[in-house]
Amino acid sequence: MSSFGYQIKEGFKNLFSNRMMSLASIGVLVSCLVLTGSAVLLTVNVTSCVDSVSDNNLTNVYLDDDMDHLHAVAIGQDLLAVDHVVDAQFVEKDEAMEDYREQLGEDIFKNMTGKGNPFPYSYRITVDAETMQNVDRYDAVVEALKQVKLVRNGETLGGVQSVNSHRDLAQKLTSLSSLITMMSFWIILVLAVISLFIIANTIRMTMFSHRFEISIMKSVGATNTFVRIPFVVEGAAIGLISAVLSVGILYLLSNAVLAAVKAVLPFKLVPFTDIIWYVSGAFVAAGVIVGVLGSLLSISRFLKREGNEILGW
Amino acid sequence: MIEFKNVSKIYSSNGAHALDNVSLDIEKGEFVFIVGASGAGKSTFLKLIMREEQPTSGTIIVNDMHLETLPRRKVPYLRRSMGIVFQDFRLISKMTVYENVAFAMRCVGKKSSTIKKRVPYILDLVGLSDKANDHPTELSGGEQQRVSLARALVNNPAMIIADEPTGNIDPEMSYEIIELLSEINKRGTTVLVVTHEHDLVKSFDKRVINIENGRVVADSADEEYIAI
Fold first, then answer.
1. What is the four-CA torsion angle of B134, B135, B140, B144, rounded to 10 degrees?
2. pLDDT under 50 in chain A at which residues?
3. Domain encompassing residue A94
């Protein structure tokens, strides 16, 4: 075994001989990482919900239940005639049911095919980009759409029953998500600083208990890099262990929470497994960086000392 | 090997003049005693050689390295050229004799295979082969100091610096230690022994440099030297 190998082994030994402080460091770092991961998962899911409601079909127009297929198709012209509407895409009843089936599962729709289909005919309305930016104009368009009726030869053959603009929900979700992002950013920052200090302190304690060896190492001509190795290894190991634990905790936690949310919200949710590799990579990187930084922070001042100063004699 | 030119050291913390315009030359292969009462400036002298302290003025050359301009990152390499023996041995109590000596080789990045060959050889040299697996606490003072000496020697330094090596051991053992240092000196290693035990110094016919109040007051290498 090379001398570097020996130093690396020393680092792991220190981790165990300094159990309580190592555990404290790991605990704080884990809570920091789990919180970060939760915030990421939440943001990803909120964004995905916002996308699904506001994507291309921001505005859904539902027609009267009793309109027949022919009339339902015909009213498309009238909808297109509304100012600022650039496209009106007809949606069959079956199509509408398919969409919901994807989101809510098979069971509910078992007996609803053909005549039993409870969905009305509808249109996906696209408005021009300018209107999308302008709330008042958009609301005016929504109002206009609500008034559309199919009138042929003085006879009203049906009309728009309701307009469902998911815009409000999208806005609420977006602002909620940015609020959460902001809050978690600050909490994570504070926790990161706390973990940094706790790790620095843990390593400082290890270093203090090894000050005698360190003074001998320096007197026989060990380079500062060499003296640092076990402490950097200890810090990195704390970071790595925390990262692995955090991914595990987040996996279990997200499974439970997402299952509960799924029962209440009719949205397709992004499961943790979809982003697990990115999160794991980021956690390992962040954990190791915080660990190594924490150890370097406490070593540098120590290594500037010489001889008996190290021992405090 | 060691050259001091008009070296002064004033500690900024208390303004004490630890060394006052000291000039001296120690050649390669010499055996030198540095004597003086405590507080005379012996420790400062050693700290300057090891580059634990910087001189306030003057120049110091050790092993062709100018210490007043030596960058911090080169200090380890200066220290590899010297083996240091402390009065209090400074052995790691949880390690065996063998491990204590091997530790010094690990610190400078030596391979295990080299360590395995070299450590038994050095332990044999200081006469401690049969104590290799003992812990320092199981040894006498004299034996502990020989371990400390083995550790200082193991990286084959050009010089050995012993700071009061006999301060914590029996008088009979003290002679043994100096004899051992003298043996090592005969193999070509420069030896510097700092001590305040004049009797010990007198029984060996070596160069003696006497420091008092931060000045070299006598040097047996000088022609006008009168023994005190």
1. 110
2. 56-57
3. 59-165
